[in-house]
Amino acid sequence: MTHRAQAGHPGGSLSEIDILCALYGRRLRVQTNNPKWEDRDRFILSKGHASPGMYAVLAEMGFISHADLESYRVKGGVCQGHVDMKWCPGVDFSAGSLGMGLSFGMGCAVAARIDGSSRNSYVMIGDGEMQEGSIWEAAMSAVHHELGNLKLFVDCNGIQNDDFCEVQMRMFDIPAKWNSFGWAVKVIDGHNMNEIVGAIEWMDTISDRPAVVIANTVKGKGVSFMENNPAFHGAAPSDEQLLQALSELGVNA
Amino acid sequence: MSRMAATRDGYGDALLALADNPKVVVLEADLGKSTKSLHFRKAHPDRTVSCGIGEQNMLLVGAGLASSGYIPFASTFAIFTERAFEQMRNGVARPNLAVHVCGSHGGTHTGTDGSSAQSIEDLAIYRTLPNVVVMHPCDDVSTKALTMQLPELGSPSYMRTARNKTPVLYDGRENEIKIGKGVELIEGKDVAIIACGVLVHEAIAAAKTLEEAGVSATVVDMHTIKPLDGDLIESLAERCGAVVTAEDHSIIGGLGGAVAEHLISTRPVPMERIGVQDRFGESAGAEEMLEMMGLKSHHIVEAANRVIARKA
């Protein structure tokens, strides 16, 4: 997608992809033939620039076609640059501005509670995104309201737009921060499928407060020249790089 | 003397009256006593969400609720809604989620709290957002009537209410209040004064002064700034040939800007804008502020005379 568009965000799409596959494949209660089903679980990709990862999963699930993936960043396409609920079936939140998805997910969780529904609200943010102050407004508020139906993944790939997070804004002890806000916290390897599935099941056991899975991931996972490389936060691969990347990922070009 | 009331009380009454609709929910940011959402909270704590002193979170919690079929009403001071402007833009207006924001204590009429609390740009900034309806009613009855119409709107809205009491104009006339339709309070032929909020009352006083001087002035309560009642404005321009706008808001981008934008491409006529002259306020009483900012009835009279003199 990013190669065709010669724009977009491959690095964060690859760091999140294992979690998205596990969540959609094993847990999320959704109906692909009825994407607006009122009692569906919500999934809010707050780091909406990592849309290629989500579009790929939505296509595998059947919310959109594989042909739709060619519409990424193309005029009139369902695959807008950032995931958008007005354009793409299966998208629950119009993202693109960091720091917003957790609050939105909290609103969905409050609605589920008033409805008396057991549906969950899942949110994914990036680690750099935690530098937005509104994340912490939401973190405090969700615990105050004891939203056991709000589940958060932090995709900790260690890199943001300009450079490594350690350079741009050190966040120090991330699990300690969420612990101190009163969340149930679990730290995992975000590319170990057993750990991811275990963490999703662990989230189901938390019902009295929001739960966060802090997933240590690798930006650009699976592509040697992208891995842990800040240059591939928001840059598309060249023709040669695409072929190498597909080869390394075991995809027939 | 007519009954006096604050528009924020009309908002609080409306929320309570709307509570019969189980989809109506209220969001607060620690100012429910001030914005008057507290009446709903006391009666329906299960449908009230305290967001603490966190406006950015509040607007997006509202967006999440709206996306799940609820009708959220979120209120704080007008000035503090602005802190969450980008949330309003990207999280509410862009996906067209019907979150209804009420900013109380708008304008310099707010008074002694000083310039940090006196929003004079709210109408302008929200007016720039696609999908957002912008209102600034002048009394508690019209505030309640407009608020009662919001659940049917299906798109987001911003309403500014005022802190202090003003005369009540619409007792028994609730049915005249419709979102998007200005109300002609006084019919005249020499000049049209188009006002909103607190300055509607100043406009009425100005029209009386003008009448004593032999000038026949129309006064319109333009409680909805967006969508603007363009048909009415064009008919006023045609009939009166001169327009004065009046608002407790910056002269940049508010009601005056909206009317000017409309007339310039339809029926341009001489026009003057009464509003805050691109400056901040300060601590003073409500009436003192109107005088200091050039928003009193005598300022409107002077503007009316100027604009009439400019007629061809």
List the helices and strands and how they pair.
The complex is a heterodimer of chains A (253) and B (312).
Chain A: H1 2-5, H2 10-26, E1 42-45, H3 51-61, H4 101-115, E2 121-126, H5 133-144, E3 150-156, H6 165-168, H7 174-181, E4 184-189, H8 193-205, E5 211-216, H9 239-248
Parallel strand pairs in A: 1-2, 2-3, 3-5, 4-5
Helix pairs in contact in A: 2-3, 2-8
Chain B: E1 4-5, H1 7-18, E2 24-28, H2 32-35, H3 38-43, E3 48-50, H4 55-67, E4 71-77, H5 78-81, H6 85-93, E5 100-104, H7 122-127, E6 133-135, H8 140-149, E7 157-160, E8 166-167, E9 183-186, E10 191-195, H9 199-212, E11 217-221, E12 224-226, H10 230-240, E13 243-250, H11 255-264, E14 271-276, H12 286-292, H13 297-309
Parallel strand pairs in B: 2-3, 2-4, 4-5, 5-7, 6-7, 10-11, 10-13, 13-14
Antiparallel strand pairs in B: 1-8, 6-12, 9-11
Helix pairs in contact in B: 1-8, 4-6, 9-13
Short description:
Chain A has 253 residues and is of the alpha/beta class. Chain A is built from nine helices and five strands.
Description:
The complex is a heterodimer of chains A (about 250) and B (about 300). Chain A is α/β, with parallel strands linked by helices and about 250 residues long. Chain A has one domain (about 1-245): Rossmann fold, CATH 3.40.50. Chain A is built from 9 helices and 5 strands, in the order H-H-E-H-H-E-H-E-H-H-E-H-E-H. Chain A has helices at about 1-5, 10-25, 50-60, 100-115, 135-145, 165-170, 175-180, 195-205, 240-250; strands spanning about 40-45, 120-125, 150-155, 185-190, 210-215. Chain A has a 5-stranded parallel beta sheet with strand order 1-2-3-5-4, sandwiched between helices. In chain A, helix 2 (about 10-25) packs parallel to helix 3 (about 50-60). The model of chain A has no long low-confidence stretch (mean pLDDT about 95). Chain B folds into 2 domains: about 5-165, Thiamin diphosphate (ThDP)-binding fold, Pyr/PP domains (Rossmann fold), CATH 3.40.50; about 185-310, 3-Layer(aba) Sandwich (Rossmann fold). Chain B has helices at about 5-20, 30-35, 40-45, 55-65, 80, 85-95, 120-125, 140-150, 200-210, 230-240, 255-265, 285-290, 295-310; strands at about 5, 25-30, 50, 70-75, 100-105, 135, 155-160, 165, 185, 190-195, 215-220, 225, 245-250, 270-275. In chain B, the strands form 3 sheets. In chain B, strands 3-2-4-5-7-6-12 form a 7-stranded mixed beta sheet, sandwiched between helices. Chain B has a 5-stranded mixed beta sheet with strand order 9-11-10-13-14, sandwiched between helices. In chain B, helix 1 (about 5-20) packs parallel to helix 8 (about 140-150), helix 4 packs parallel to helix 6 (about 85-95) and helix 9 crosses helix 13. Chain B is globular. Chain B starts with a strand and ends with a helix. The interface of A and B includes residues 85, 94, 103, 106 and 114 of A.
